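Structure first, sequence second, as always.
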């Protein structure tokens, strides 16, 4: 299981996302809006919009609020126009970062991300310098109570290509278009879904066995994730479980 997935699972279990519910709502609504603008407002014809719509509903965003975001995306309602931007960079210890944003001001967002990296031991990278190390995948994290045989039977027909276990938590991954089907398949099997999202899975990882290094990298990632325009941060760190728990 990738370091990012481990960290995301720990944060989920601690309820970190719930402490910032309003900010989470705003991010999800931006994603809904952009998906509607790029692929239309029909949930049946726009798989990305359908996935983001379901994700927003799972987070308890009111349906009327989501519908208004769809209408802003399709132009039926006026609103700020957001564009997707991905920044590449490095955290301390040479950890590669992919920082996905939705912004209404590319110059402002870029300057703020660059400053955040430089002030915390990281740096911005040129486009393409980091991206080759990552593969975009649909990832569903399944909690306690699952087993490999049950997961395989439930998700193979839904597009699952890889199933891994780490400390009682399972990671089911497949092509990006399979995210909604994988999540539905796991839920239909009566298994708990801890998260379902698109992730950038690294082809190689950077080991962080020292608590100080791990703490510094995770601190920067959390600062980036707290930025209003940042939707997701993907990294190629690999932290041993005992170190990850110690710095968590």
């Amino acid at each position: 299981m990738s370091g990012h997935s481990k960290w995301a699972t720990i944060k989920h279990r601690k309820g970190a996302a719930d402490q910032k519910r309003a900010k989470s709502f705003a991010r999800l609504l931006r994603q809904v809006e952009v998906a509607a603008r790029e692929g239309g407002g029909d949930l049946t014809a726009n798989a990305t919009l359908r996935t983001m719509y379901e994700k927003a509903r799972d987070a308890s965003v009111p349906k009327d609020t989501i519908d208004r975001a769809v209408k802003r995306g399709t132009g039926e309602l006026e609103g700020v126009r957001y564009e997707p931007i991905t920044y590449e960079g490095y955290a301390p210890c040479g950890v590669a970062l992919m920082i996905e944003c939705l912004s209404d001001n590319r110059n402002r967002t870029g300057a703020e991300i660059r400053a955040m990296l430089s002030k915390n031991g990281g740096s911005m990278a040129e486009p393409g310098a980091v991206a080759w190390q990552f593969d975009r995948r649909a990832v569903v994290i399944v909690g306690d109570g699952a087993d490999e045989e049950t997961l395989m039977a439930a998700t193979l027909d839904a597009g699952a290509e890889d199933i891994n276990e780490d400390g009682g938590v399972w990671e089911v991954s497949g092509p990006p278009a399979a995210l909604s089907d994988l999540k539905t398949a796991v839920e239909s099997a009566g298994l708990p879904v801890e998260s379902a999202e698109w992730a950038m899975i690294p082809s190689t990882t950077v080991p962080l066995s020292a608590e100080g290094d791990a703490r510094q990298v995770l601190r920067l990632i959390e600062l980036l994730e707290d930025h209003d325009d940042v939707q997701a941060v993907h990294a190629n760190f690999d932290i041993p479980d005992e170190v990850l728990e110690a710095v968590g």
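Margin note: The radius of gyration is 18 Å.
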